[in-house]
Amino acid sequence: MKLVALGSGNVASHLIPALYACQINIECVYSQTIANAKNLAKLVNAKYCDSLSEIPNDADIYLLMLPDAAISNCISLWPFELKKSQCILHTSGSFNTDSLSLISNHYGAFYPLQSFKKGKELDLSKTPFLLHASHDDVYLKMKALAYLISEHLFKITDQERKKIHLAAVILNNFTTSLFIAAESYLKKEDIPKEPLALIIENTFNNLLNEQSASTLITGPAFRNEEKTIEDHLSLLKDYPTIIPIYQSITQFIQSYFNENNT
């Protein structure tokens, strides 16, 4: 199986070497930044280019690992027509997959539900792959490709993928942002963050082992302790960017449990 990789960023830096290690022939790496294309191509013994007009036209799969705006731009500049035996896929969580029909009738979403960071080690075997295809033959090709890396495969609709992506952003990116807020608060107050390590570990262990996160919630918002909430907001008076976060999540907790306990 021959594959052309379009992109050399966070996703591509993990996915392409993993596929190469599984004996997938990476024919070419494309990136608008030629140095990045060259660096990734070296790892997988591939050609590289920074122009769409230079990508090979004989690959089995064209894998777009690009930001959504760059995918749209790529579609508008695509240089040749694909055969029925070829397919074009993207790895985005939110891109409208049907837009790829402007290039080919054989297309799909090959979405790894993971937080990728170039240079940071990652076990892709534990990564869920959410697959959506225009045709059954495309799905079977995607399934075979994903199964080389992970056993966690899910056949879903395009709308379901977008909704899972939204939930993942809330769960992953927003949670990390809360870590940043707590960490920056303690740093400015010259207080060590180490005492928080155990509660962080316990919280995530409990979340992984509990069927519903709602059974784990505690704290002043859950108990409607207005005096404690006021005290916390007073402690945050010099942190105007953290105050609305505290207030918004407090309101969510109180609203959620008021609605679900009535």
Description of the molecule:
It contains 8 helices and 8 strands; from the N terminus they run βαβαββαβββαβαααα. Helices cover 44% and strands 14% of the residues. The longest helix has 31 residues, at 158-188. It has 262 residues and is α/β, with parallel strands linked by helices. Helix 3 links the parallel strand 4 and strand 5. The chain has an 8-stranded mixed beta sheet, covered by helices on one side. It folds into 2 domains: 2-156, Rossmann fold; 162-260, N-(1-d-carboxylethyl)-l-norvaline Dehydrogenase, domain 2 (Orthogonal Bundle), CATH 1.10.1040.
Features:
Rossmann fold, N-(1-d-carboxylethyl)-l-norvaline Dehydrogenase, domain 2, 2 domains, 8-stranded mixed sheet, 44% helix, 14% strand
The stretches of 5 or more residues where confidence is low (pLDDT under 50) are none
CATH superfamily of the largest domain: NAD(P)-binding Rossmann-like Domain
Main β-sheet, spatial strand arrangement: 3-2-1-4-5-6-7-8
- Evaluate the radius of gyration: 23 Å
Question: Layout of helices and strands, plus pairs?
Answer:
Elements: E1 2-6, H1 10-21, E2 25-30, H2 34-43, E3 47-49, E4 61-64, H3 68-76, E5 87-90, E6 107-112, E7 129-133, H4 136-147, E8 153-155, H5 158-188, H6 196-209, H7 226-235, H8 243-260
Parallel strand pairs: 1-2, 1-4, 2-3, 4-5, 5-6, 7-8
Antiparallel strand pairs: 6-7
Provide a short characterization of the protein structure.
The chain is α/β, with parallel strands linked by helices. The protein has helices at residues 10-21, 34-43, 68-76, 136-147, 158-188, 196-209, 226-235, 243-260; strands spanning 2-6, 25-30, 47-49, 61-64, 87-90, 107-112, 129-133, 153-155.
